[in-house]
Amino acid sequence: MEKEKSKWIVVAFLVSFVLLFVKFYSYSLTNSTAILTDALESIVNVVAAGFASYSIYLSSRPKDDNHPYGHGKIEFFSAGVEGTLIILAGIFIIFQAINNFFDPRELDQLPIGIALIGISGLINGMLGFVLQKKGVELKSLTIEASGKHLMTDAITSLVLILGVAIIYFTSLYYLDSVISILFSLYIIYSGYALVRRSVGGLMDEADPSSVEAIVGLLNNTRKPNWIDIHNLRVQQYGSDRHIDLHLTLPYYLDLNQVHDEVQGVEKVLEEDWPGMMEVFIHADPCIPENCCHYCQLTACPVRKAPITVKIEWTVANMSKNQKHYHDSV
C-alpha cells in the first residue's frame, strides 16, 4: 500500500513540475495576471507534492519509542502545509491584481495562452480525479488532498479560459485583474478547507463517517454476549486507525472466555480495515439489576429480569462513557 501511495505522489510531482513551466511560458507570452495566478498556484502544487512525498515516506515508518502510535499524523501536517501555501499564493495574487487594476497592461498572444492553459487544466483534472479516488481507496489524506487541489486547479483553469476569452474579444484589460481577484478568493477558500481538515485531524477531531461505519459494522456482527459497547473512540493516523471501546460481558465468564469475546470484537474490526488497525478494549462485567432487561442473551443462567427492550447501537449512545442502561431507565 505504501509503495502505491509513493507512486501516485511521484506522478503528481512530475506532472505538476512540467505544467509549472507550461503555465509560466503562457504568462510570458500574454502578460496576463490571471494566467500568472494559475502559474503561481502551480508552484504550490510542486512544493506540496514534494512535501507530500516525504510525508508518505515518513508515515510508512513503523512505530518506535518516540512515536508509539506511528508516524501517520504527518499526513495531516502535510495537508495543512499545502493549504497554507495555497492561502499565501492567493493573498499575493490579490495584491498583484490590485496593482495591475490601476495600471492595466495590453495583453498579447491570448489564443496561444488560452490553449496552453486549457491543456494544463485538462491534465490536472484527469490526474486530480484519479488521485482523489486513490486517496479514498488507500485511506490517505495526503493523496486525497493533492487530488482535490489539482481538481480545484483544473476548475479554475476552465473558468480562467472563459475570462481570458472575454478579455480577448472585448479588449477590456482591467477584467484581467478582476478575474485574478475572484480566482484568488476561491483559492484562499480551498486552502482554508484543507487547513481546517488538517487541524481537525491533528486535534483528533471525531470523524463522523468513520464512527458511523464502525457502529454499523458492530451492529451487523453483534453477538448475544456483547451486552453493551460504549465509550467508543476512533483516531486516524494516515492509513492507520486506532479504536478504544468498553465492552460489557456476562459477569460469570472466566478470564479465558472474556479473552475470546474481546478477540472476537477485535477480529471483526481488524478484518474490515485494509490498513493497520489497533484496537484497545476494556471489558466490563454486567450488572444484573441494570442490564438484564436489555441483555439479548436468552440462555443466561443468572437472569434476574425478563428482556423488555433491545437497545439499538448508535453513534450517540456508543460514544458516551456510560453503559446504555442510563439511556433506557
TrEMBL record:
Q: Which domain of life does the UniProt lineage start with?
A: Bacteria
Per its UniProt record, what Pfam families does this chain match?
A: Cation_efflux, ZT_dimer
Could you cite one Gene Ontology molecular function of this protein? zinc efflux antiporter activity
Q: How does it sit in the membrane?
A: Multi-pass membrane protein
Cation efflux protein cytoplasmic domain residues:
208-286
Q: Which UniProt keywords apply?
A: Membrane, Transmembrane, Transmembrane helix, Transport
Any Gene Ontology biological process: intracellular zinc ion homeostasis
Record-annotated Cation efflux protein transmembrane domain positions: 9-203
| An example Gene Ontology CC term for this record | plasma membrane
Q: Where does the sequence pass through the membrane?
A: 7-27, 39-58, 79-98, 110-130, 150-171, 177-195
Q: Where in the cell is it found?
A: Membrane
**PANTHER family found in the cross-reference section:** MITOCHONDRIAL METAL TRANSPORTER 1-RELATED (PTHR43840:SF15)
Q: Which family does it belong to?
A: Belongs to the cation diffusion facilitator (CDF) transporter (TC 2.A.4) family.
Q: What is this protein called?
A: Cation diffusion facilitator family transporter
